[in-house]
Every structure is written in C-alpha cells, then in structure tokens.
C-alpha cells in the first residue's frame, strides 16, 4: 500500500540516526511532512528540523512553543543507551518524553496518533509496578532521590530497563486519556537492533546479550521497526489504543514460552 500517511504532519524525535532516521525516511516516502527533532543536526528525510536537548526542561518547553499547530502524529523515539548516567538517561527516556508529549497535546489534531518507542527491555514491567507507580511523581528536580530509593542506577543497565518498563505502562495508562478527541497512544518494543548504540547494550548487558544472540537468528534493523511505527501513525489503526507491539524477532514470545513451560 502506498501513501499511508499522505498529508500528515508528524514529529519524530531522535530523527538523525538509527530507528528515528529510518522512521522519518519511511514516513516521508509514504507522503508525510516530517518534523525532525534531535540534538545532532541532520536534515535527511525531514521537512523541518528542530535542534533540542530533550534532557533540559527549558529546551523542551521552547520546542513546544515553536512547533506548529496541526500535528497529526508524534513519535517519541529519542533515547539514551544504558551506558549513560542514570540521571541523564531518565531525563531523556522518561521525564523529558512525558513533558514533551503533554506539552504538545494542545497542538495535536483530533485523531492524532502518539507512538512511544519502548523496548524488549520493558518486558519485566509487572515486577516493577511499585517503582513505576512512584515514578508518576518523578520530575527533573527529584531524580537522584528516586534513583537511590528505587535502586534504578545504571549498574547492569537497570535505569534503562526501568525507563522502558515505565514507558510501556504509561502507554497502557493513556489508552483513553484523550479519547474524546480521538487521540490515541501506543508503543513499539524493538528487540536488539543494529544501530550505532547496539554496542552500548552488549557492553552493559554482558551475559544477557550473549543469550539473546544465541537464540535469535539476527539482530533487528531500523528497516524492521520503521514500518511498524508508520502503521500505528496511519488511519488504519484508530482502534488500537494503549497497546504495546513487540517487534523483536520473537524474543518476547520466547520469554513467555519459557516462563510458562510452553
């Protein structure tokens, strides 16, 4: 099918590389006007580019101010790998992502679609519910206290795992938040994807990464993920709400089968 997002104005964060770059490319190919956001300048595949540091609340608020009205889609893709300090990672992967989303709601068109790029790393959210509930009050000013209280430092990649667990849950919680305007929120959870930060995951996860490599046929590619994001931004998915779609080569199914002896 062609032109699935023809005429839609879609914001893609982290548009300069990896999954964000490919998402912007496939959206533009399918007829969308892409507004790219990144810390690193790259005008590939975008109609307009906005440079913004999504770890800084002032930069996020300034970005919200300058983005136009009539946005039909938001792809929350920008994120930091588990090798980054936990304070900075949570700023970008969770707190800043939420601030940008809430700030843009008034500028979204009725019927708009929000897609959060989560991760297979968020699979274990049921075991982190208490911390996730506590994170509802997490903001830029109390991150260090939260990290200490809930043991979500970057040791062993825990801060990254937690950010994605919380993002999957936040997606589910917002299944009907803006239903009166037809605005929906969903997420996509890639498994290991061959991007510039894949090495960070391998270095951090160690034996877990080796196990993934043993059971998978190959890592994913941005080309495996971009079309799934585009699908959720299209008018074909107006009744998919609060759903997390694994795009992981079967890894989440493998984990579930192992957990339940199947």
In words, what does this structure look like?
It is built from ten helices and seven strands. The protein has 262 residues and is of the alpha/beta class.
How is the topology of this model organized?
Elements: E1 9-13, H1 18-29, E2 33-38, E3 48-51, H2 57-66, E4 71-76, H3 86-104, E5 108-117, H4 129-134, H5 143-150, H6 158-173, E6 184-190, H7 198-205, H8 207-215, H9 222-233, E7 244-247, H10 251-259
Parallel strand pairs: 1-2, 1-4, 2-3, 4-5, 5-6, 6-7
Helix pairs in contact: 1-9, 2-3, 3-6, 7-8
Total beta-strand segments: 7
In the CATH scheme, what's the topology name?
Rossmann fold
Spatial gap, N to C terminus = 36 Å
**Major sheet, described briefly?**
7 strands, parallel
Helix content: 40-55%
Q: Could you give a short description of this structure?
A:
This protein has helices at 18-29, 57-66, 86-104, 129-134, 143-150, 158-173, 198-205, 207-215, 222-233, 251-259, and strands at 9-13, 33-38, 48-51, 71-76, 108-117, 184-190, 244-247. With 262 residues, it is an alpha/beta fold.
């Amino acid at each position: 099918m062609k032109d699935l997002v023809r005429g839609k104005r879609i914001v893609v964060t982290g548009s300069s590389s990896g999954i964000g770059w490919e998402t912007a490319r496939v959206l533009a190919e399918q007829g969308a006007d892409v507004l790219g956001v990144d810390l690193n300048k790259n005008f590939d595949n975008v109609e307009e580019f906005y440079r913004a540091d999504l770890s800084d609340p002032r930069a996020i608020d300034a970005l919200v101010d300058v983005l136009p009205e009539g946005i039909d889609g938001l792809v929350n893709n920008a994120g930091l790998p588990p090798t980054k300090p936990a304070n900075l990672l949570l700023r970008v992967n969770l707190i800043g992502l939420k601030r940008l989303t809430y700030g843009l709601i008034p500028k979204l068109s009725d019927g708009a679609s929000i897609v959060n790029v989560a991760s297979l790393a968020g699979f274990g959210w049921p075991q982190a519910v208490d911390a996730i509930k506590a994170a509802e009050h997490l903001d830029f000013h109390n991150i260090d206290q939260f990290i200490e209280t809930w043991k979500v430092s970057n040791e062993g990649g825990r801060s990254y795992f937690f950010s994605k667990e919380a993002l999957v849950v936040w997606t589910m919680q917002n299944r009907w938040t803006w239903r009166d305007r037809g605005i929906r929120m969903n997420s996509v959870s890639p498994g290991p994807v061959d991007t510039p930060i894949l090495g960070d995951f391998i270095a951090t996860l160690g034996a877990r990464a080796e196990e993934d490599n043993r059971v998978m046929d190959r890592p994913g590619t941005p080309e495996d993920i971009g079309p799934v994001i585009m699908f959720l931004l299209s008018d074909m998915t107006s009744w998919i709400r609060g759903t997390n779609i694994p795009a992981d080569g079967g890894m989440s199914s493998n984990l579930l089968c192992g957990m339940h002896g199947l």
